[in-house]
Write a structure and sequence with these properties.
The complex is a heterodimer of chains A (109) and B (115). The N and C termini of chain A lie far apart (40 Å). In chain A, the strands form two sheets. In chain A, strands 2, 4, 5, 9, 10 and 11 form a six-stranded mixed β-sheet that branches. Chain A has a five-stranded antiparallel β-sheet with strand order 1-3-8-7-6, with no helix packed on it. Chain A has no helices and eleven strands. Chain A is globular. By secondary structure, chain A is mainly beta. Chain A has strands at 3-5, 9-13, 18-25, 32-37, 44-49, 53-57, 60-65, 70-75, 84-91, 97-99, 103-108. By secondary structure, chain B is mainly beta. Chain B is built from no helices and eleven strands. In chain B, a hairpin with a 2-residue loop joins strand 5 and strand 6. The chains are: A mainly beta (109), B mainly beta (115). Chains A and B meet through strand 5, strand 9 and strand 10 of A and strand 10 of B.
Chain lengths: 109, 115
């Protein structure tokens, strides 16, 4: 079966750095998304990786290793507004999106 | 600005009733999707459409139906609501032609409670 694993919950301190991991076992791979979802709100797009390596976008970076079936989202200089759930999603060989259950990130002052 | 809107945002209904959740987008996207989101699960695809008159079943389509008569709207109908369909429903759209690979733009969600 197809599976995407993310930690259920993580806690970090304001101003610090946090890495949210995502491992996947899917039938093929055609790209990986990260979305942010604040409580009670819709998911919003953060990043898309299809090639190995690091993509940097301001305080957020996303890394992909296709050979290891692994990605991470790196958040720097954490702010209280970064408290949210972070969703990992993989496009499989049939071009269907497979979603992880999400990681709830709690930021403490 | 272009947007995607859902209505109603909150709905309480009884088992066995028919319910329709509306989704309207002004992005002029061909692709539209309906997901449900439940605690402990990732977003699960219910139905999707790649254009007018096109509809496809997702992984959890039983008990749901959609129709696509124009580009802007993809209403989701629960023919006979069941308690297992209590959930938060998200509509989304994307511009990538005939594919799930594009960035998704989500509506604000519709919280449905079936008593």
């Amino acid at each position: 079966g197809q599976n995407i694993d993310q930690p259920t919950e993580m806690t970090a301190t304001e101003g610090a750095i946090v890495q949210i991991n995502c491992t996947y076992q899917t039938s093929g791979f055609n790209g990986l998304f990260w979305y942010q979802q604040h409580a009670g709100e819709a998911p919003t797009f953060l990043s898309y990786n299809v090639l190995d390596g690091l993509e940097e976008k301001g305080r957020f970076s996303s890394f992909l290793s296709r050979s290891k079936g692994y990605s991470y989202l790196l958040l720097k200089e954490l702010q209280m507004k970064d408290s949210a759930s972070y969703l990992c999603a993989v496009i499989d060989s049939n071009y269907q999106l497979i979603w992880g259950a999400g990681t709830k990130l709690i930021i403490k002052p | 600005d272009a947007e995607i809107t859902q209505s109603p945002r909150h709905k309480i209904t009884e088992t066995g009733r028919q319910v329709t959740l509306a989704c309207h987008q002004t992005w002029n996207h061909n692709n539209m999707f309906w997901y449900r989101q439940d605690l402990g699960h990732g977003l699960r695809l219910i139905h999707y459409s790649y254009g007018v008159q096109d509809t496809n079943k997702g992984e959890v389509s039983d008990g749901y139906s959609v129709s696509r008569s124009n580009t802007e709207d993809l209403p989701l109908t629960l023919e006979s609501a069941a308690s297992s369909q209590t959930s938060v429903y998200f509509c989304a759209s994307s511009e990538m032609q005939d594919s799930n690979t594009g960035e998704l733009f989500f509506g604000e969600g519709s919280r449905l409670t079936v008593l």
